[in-house]
Amino acid sequence: MRHPILFPMCIAAVVALSACQRSGDAEVQRALQDLNVVDETNLNDVFLTVSDPDEAVSYFSRANDNDPGRIDLLRGLSQSLIRAKRNTEAVTAWQAVTSHAEANNDDRVELADAYIRTNQWDKAAATLNAIPPTHETFKRYRLEAIIADSNEQWEKADSFYQIAVGLTTTPAGVYNNWGYSKLTRGAYRDAERMFTDALRHDPQMFTAKNNIVLARGAQRNYDLPVIPMNQTERAQLLHTMALTAIKQNDITIGKGLLREAIDTHPQHFEEATRALRALEDNVTN
Question: pTM for the full model?
């Protein structure tokens, strides 16, 4: 008499067990999906930072083909094209990003950057102008400064550079760009100060060291600045100073600086040797 009762109970137990199993399988699948997302995110980061730029372009191109429409993969491709210096392709890629429904103002700033890299200054300016002024980021103002420089709008450029400096903890590059802006205007003392500020934040930035020499040479000050430099850098800076002197027709000083550069360099300094030989041959002829 108990069998009819036992049979439904067994069925209920089997159904419950099956439901538990399905629930467990779903949880496993969700966990695996989460794990795959984490693994993919880490892999994306690797390709965006430490991998060869062209390899990164190939990786994100394949990823976009396999999973089209994902804005993170579109961004990865766009950033990789910039790293690979394939700037024309990067413009098209960033245009695709900014056309995406999930695009944001940072993406539009990146598009403006790509326009600048391809000398499309008007499009870069228009792209930035379309971004609300409340979007205040370091890169936005650095690009605004560069565009103002290209238009010789010096007061605007100075203002934008000043804002950009205040929005980053690593302002060496901004000071270097600002200094070069001053250099092109003929404001050599201001330029020298900006390059000094760049080196204060990044003592290893050789571009800023070279630019200081250009600024001093433009003032006919042919003494090297007191800045950190190794022997090879010293030779290269003497070479830059020599060329600056020669350009200003201070030929004797330039020849002396070239000889000092050749003597200072720990190896054969071909560029300085060739320049000195050309000067001496010109004097002989």
Answer: 0.79
CA dihedral 176, 182, 187, 189 (to 10 degrees): -10
What residues have CB less than 8 Å from 100, skipping those under 6 apart? 69, 71, 74, 107
Residue 208 and residue 198 in contact, taking contact as beta carbons nearer than 8 Å: yes
Cβ–Cβ < 8 Å for 48, 80: yes
Q: With beta carbons less than 8 A apart as the criterion, state whether 223 and 216 touch.
A: yes
Locus of tokens 């200072």: 264
Place of tokens 């050309």: 278
- Where helices occur in the chain by DSSP H, the ranges are 3-49, 53-66, 71-83, 87-98, 105-117, 121-129, 138-150, 154-166, 172-185, 188-201, 206-218, 231-247, 251-264, 270-284
Dist. CA 205–CA 198, nearest whole Å? 8
pLDDT tens profile 54-96 = 999 999 999 999 989 999 999 999 999 999 999 999 999 999 9
Return d(Cα 84, Cα 168) in angstroms, integer. 25
